[in-house]
DNA sequence: CATGAATGAGGATTCATTCAT
DNA sequence: AATGAATGAATCCTCATTCAT
């Protein structure tokens, strides 16, 4: 019973995720969500406070998913460069396996709607603490370029996700332009020049 | 007379731009646009076909602005690396001078709404033909890394705009982390390794 | 044109008045008001800000009507007792001629809804300033009983309106129990005992 | 067990009473009643048939309370005038001790909602049979003014309750304007003039 | 006895759009 | 060119009520 409830809640979030990806955040309507989820509109209010809550929970659940994935697949082992490589691979893998959630996160990040969802600072941000710390250490150790780790991280993040999107869209051929080459590029950008 | 009309049209687009930036594309309503523009709702239909048209024209006008700016401030002169540097500077300058239009473009790019606006391929994309050509040439000449020029361009674009945003938000201090350092990073990523 | 607008506005208020009288304030629904007024629901919003505004304006318009009536039909001429008599007659006449508006006012006065309508003190109260002043003077002059004029006024007001209601409902026969007898009663209550 | 049920039922009525007083009859919602009573919405249907039933029972229970109070505190002993005095005192006392229930009764009396509650004639009216009979007798005996006893009763009732309300609201000072003076006024109105 | 889930109907309000002027 | 009036459809949300447990 409890399980069934949670299932239905999840189902609503899934349906909303798909809707956001295909029609944008503006495209989300409770009428449409209810219809797509196969429930009555009023039923939604058992699981969520209001529309903003649905959107918020949708975002948080996808953030959770990507966070869990990275937590599981990325474990820093060696130098900052090595860790950056591992992280890039994990991120790429996620973007390939779960392009929907990736797209959703990116859409939220670009939209001012995120700011209206009264999320805590922590909730609003992707949790990249671990890799961020590694990068920071790398900069301090002189292994990485003297640069705000945030800029390095964003550069790497967007480069990887863009690459993954184009691979998925078959705009880029991963045979002639392999992931390793992209990672090399990121490393070249990040490593401290001799 | 003609001129006056064009002014009013422009005014509507400006108002819409601000609205998209502050409230997202979903936040745009003709009611609000009319009120913000100080005209009557029905009046809008003299200048635009329907709501989708306003959104579309808003996007196109901002794309035009950034395109014009780069056209004017970026003229390729030398090697691919040199051109990339010039381009990065022009882009940074634009992002600092006109953060609103920059933000609008980025928001559109991340949103599926763009796809619903029946824009031609050409209309939908930022016109970076020139720099794209230079980069392509640079790759062919062996000056740049063997990599899809698109990936290089995206990497550079996002790195610069992210940096500019954080400078504007005072999250990054441009004295300790100057633009030149960011450009160095981009170049390191792009240049073909020895 | 202007006239037509005002007519429609008035029409909405009239329809709302009838609805409040027959079904209570809780019975008012924009759907029903629109249907009864023969206009579309959204059209209402051209004339009124929201539902509360309709209810408020309905109350105010009826208050205005009773106020105008009394202003026109009651002009104090002599002693407090004489004036009280004149006032009672005017009030009775109004209650007979326009029982609907009378009923509406009474319903509002008994309901806490009135307090939620953010009316100014002045707007919320029936404007009985004139007779109130006369009564006060009468008390000071020793003509009337030493009593808060408000209590006298309320006593008189309710006695007259109750009487009028019962006459209208044919619960009381005005031949065997004429208005004059009721007024005598009110006077007996108000006059200072010898 | 049985007792516990009755307690809960009473609790629901109490909660509803408060809600009606503070927000009007229109303000009553089963959702809110349930929340305020600390029970689940569906639970209400164990104790009451439907929403109308709750409202109806609320009214009846308060009518019962005021009736019981007067039954207990008012016992006619002498002439009509003396009885009227006793009754007025009892009524005043009740209005002071239990202003909520008094306010509820008055609100119902002014509202057409009462008519929709399919109450019998007897249920709908306040049970003032006793005093009514005394007044009628008084009129017949020539002790009271020749007047419909109903008008006398209403006059007296409203005068007392209005006075009590203003005393409670501290709009009237009971020291300078004591209850006895108000009763004198009522008596003056009721007594047959010499 | 008690409740959480579920729902259809209806609530107020806003929207994009059209039309007469 | 400009606008105020008008509206139907759609928005989010609440309501009273039922049902399975």
Walk me through the topology.
Four copies of one chain form a homotetramer.
Chain A: H1 2-23, H2 30-37, H3 44-47, H4 51-73, H5 80-97, H6 99-110, H7 121-124, H8 129-140, H9 149-168, H10 179-190
Chain A binds a DNA duplex (21 and 21 nucleotides) through loops.
Notes on the protein architecture:
The structure is a homotetramer of 194-residue chains. In chain A, helix 1 crosses helix 6, helix 4 packs across helix 6 and helix 5 packs parallel to helix 9. The first copy, chain A, is mainly alpha-helical and 194 residues long. Chains in contact: A-B, C-D. Chains A and B meet through helix 1, helix 6, helix 9 and helix 10 of A and helix 1, helix 6, helix 9 and helix 10 of B. The structure holds a DNA duplex (21 and 21 nucleotides).
Summarize the entry for a quick read.
Four copies of one chain form a homotetramer. With 194 residues, chain A is mostly helical. Chain A folds into two domains: 1-48, Homeodomain-like (Arc Repressor Mutant, subunit A, Orthogonal Bundle), CATH 1.10.10; 60-190, Tetracycline Repressor, domain 2 (Orthogonal Bundle).
Kindly name the structural category of chain A.
mainly alpha
Please report which band the strand proportion of chain A falls in: under 5%, 5-15%, 15-25%, 25-35%, 35-45% or over 45%: under 5%
Which regions of chain A are unreliable across 5 or more consecutive residues at pLDDT < 50? Answer: none
What's the average pLDDT of chain A?
92
Number of separate structural domains of chain A: 2
Seen as an oligomer or otherwise, the chain set is: homotetramer
Largest interface: A-B, 42 and 42 residues
Shape of chain A: elongated
Approximate helicity band of chain A: 55-70%
Order of helices and strands of chain A: HHHHHHHHHH
| Main β-sheet description of chain A | none
CATH fold topology of the largest domain in chain A = Tetracycline Repressor, domain 2
Q: State the name of the first-level CATH class of the largest domain in chain A.
A: Mainly Alpha
For the termini of chain A, the CA-CA separation is 62 Å
């Amino acid at each position: 019973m409890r399980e069934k409830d949670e299932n239905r809640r999840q189902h609503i979030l899934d349906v909303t995720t798909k809707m956001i990806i295909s029609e944008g955040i503006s495209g989300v309507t409770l009428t449409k969500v209810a219809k797509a989820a196969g429930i009555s509109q009023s039923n939604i209010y058992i699981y969520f406070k209001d529309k903003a809550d649905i959107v918020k929970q949708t975002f948080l659940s996808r953030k959770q998913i990507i966070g869990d994935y990275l937590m599981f697949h990325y474990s820093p082992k060696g130098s900052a460069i090595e860790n950056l490589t591992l992280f890039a691979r994990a991120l790429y893998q996620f973007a390939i396996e779960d392009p929907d959630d990736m797209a959703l996160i990116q859409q939220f990040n670009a939209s001012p709607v995120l700011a209206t969802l009264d999320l805590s600072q922590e909730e609003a941000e992707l949790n990249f603490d671990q890799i961020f710390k590694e990068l920071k250490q790398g900069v301090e150790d002189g292994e990485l370029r003297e640069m705000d780790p945030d800029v390095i991280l964003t550069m790497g993040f967007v480069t990887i996700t863009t690459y993954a999107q184009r691979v998925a869209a078959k705009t880029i051929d991963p045979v002639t332009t392999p992931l390793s080459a992209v990672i090399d590029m990121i490393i070249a950008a990040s490593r401290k020049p001799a």
